[in-house]
Amino acid sequence: MIKSGMMTCLLVAFCAAVPAQAEQRAGTFKVVNGTVHVERAGVKEVAQIGGAVMQGDRVVTAPDSFAGITLRDNTRLTASPDSTLVIDAFSFDTTTHKGRLNASLKKGRLAVISGQLAKANPESVTYNTGTMTIGVRGTEFILEAAGE
Description:
The protein is α+β, with helices and mostly antiparallel strands. It has helices at residues 4-24, 116-120, and strands spanning 25-33, 36-40, 43-46, 52-54, 58-61, 66-71, 76-79, 84-92, 99-113, 125-128, 133-135, 140-145. Strands 1, 2, 3, 4, 5, 6, 7, 8, 9, 10, 11 and 12 form a twelve-stranded mixed sheet that branches. Strand 10 (125-128) and strand 11 form a beta hairpin. The chain is globular, with a radius of gyration of 17 Å.
């Protein structure tokens, strides 16, 4: 039998751990069509609808494939066929709408519909390609990068 004091300690420890895990998740795969994989901490995994997209992830689409990702601030990213996208940095506070988004398109095309971060704090959102960096001001656009 667990005493109430011990149960409270266990419950507090569990609740403290849950937000830390949730904070690491930048977003979710909403659409996966064809062959899409995510490289995380040196491990290559098949991307699946509902799967996590984490800060530091490299999302790679095959020539006949694409992926749709929704970040926690409701930014929507669509990586076209034969693309490589890296989520370099992501943080978002749902209360203040402060945070940071930095993503790099290594090759291919990326369609972007800005979310709450770009609308509330546009200076905190950047997209990079091999030749340029774009700062957004709450809009929709498409990036293209020739290659890594």
